[in-house]
Amino acid sequence: MQLLGGFQVSQALFVITDLGVPTILDQEGPSTVTALAERTNADPDALRRLIRCLAPVGVFTTDGERVSVTPLGATLSEKHPHSLHSVARASGEFHYPAFGELRHTLRTGQPAAEKYYGMPYFDWLAADPARVQLFNQAMGTFATTLRAGMFDGYRLPPGGVIADIGGAEGRMLAELLDHDDDPTRRGIVLDLPATIEAAQSSPAAAELADRVEFVAGDFFAAVPTADIYLLGWVLHNWSDQDCRRILGTIAAAAAPGARLLILEGLVPPGDQPHPVKALDLSMLGILGGKERTEQEFRDLLDSAGFTLDRIVPTPSPYLILEAEPR
């Protein structure tokens, strides 16, 4: 019963986050349900019952009418250093309704989101700047959560120009440059026009202004020439056929001796829990892509004319796959 009711819990988390309750409690301390309802323009009885449902799963603690947010619940605060605020909002607004069509995916192979929205997910996102902004914020969140510490101790291969393909706000590139000891390297972030427009007004873009150029484009058509290419959580969005198209544009533009860095999770064998197994369900229902095993990555890269040279473990659940075009 607990598993079957999971969709109710996820929607309750979305609503409570969207109302701003965890942010208020995290920033200002405990409060009463009546005061929270007034602050958030919520019905007091409905809010009391929502909080009561979320307390047993570790989000709040209550003492009569007084409500406190737990350390776990505080991650839903917009101001928390490891905030999942934008992830909760994007999941609730974008993914939750589309997953009602998951049975269609199992029958046809078409992503549930494509059926629900009537077009591919990324096309639907790009049609509304507010959606693009929230999506970029959600993706950027992973830099301080699941990806935290990923580049600790990692040294970039030689090369003066790094191209972050599908890099959104460029947070991953910023982190790599920050860890690097070569101040002469410069970067390029390539993404769709709507994404780049939103990214250029972000705090991350301001930090990168002196070293990084933001370029609007389509990685299926062409990418800039560079010495190092980054594909951070890009290939898992796409089918093998589409991945070969992306890798083909990189191979065509790459400078001699160029290196490719793929940042992804690898699906481990067996039944043990791993974040990428859950993420694979999102790929199935939303985008039509997939999380891959090590052998699937080797086969994919080989079929696209690349050689996988090494896999670098990191302190995070993700790895760095280093490859080069043949």
Automatic annotation (TrEMBL):
Ranges where the O-methyltransferase dimerisation domain occurs: 1-76
Taxonomic superkingdom: Bacteria
KW Nuclease (keyword) present: no
Keyword vocabulary terms for this entry: Methyltransferase, S-adenosyl-L-methionine, Transferase
One Pfam family, short name: Methyltransf_2
Alphabetized PROSITE patterns for the sequence: SAM_OMT_II
Annotated O-methyltransferase C-terminal domain residues: 100-306
Protein name listed in UniProt: O-methyltransferase family 2
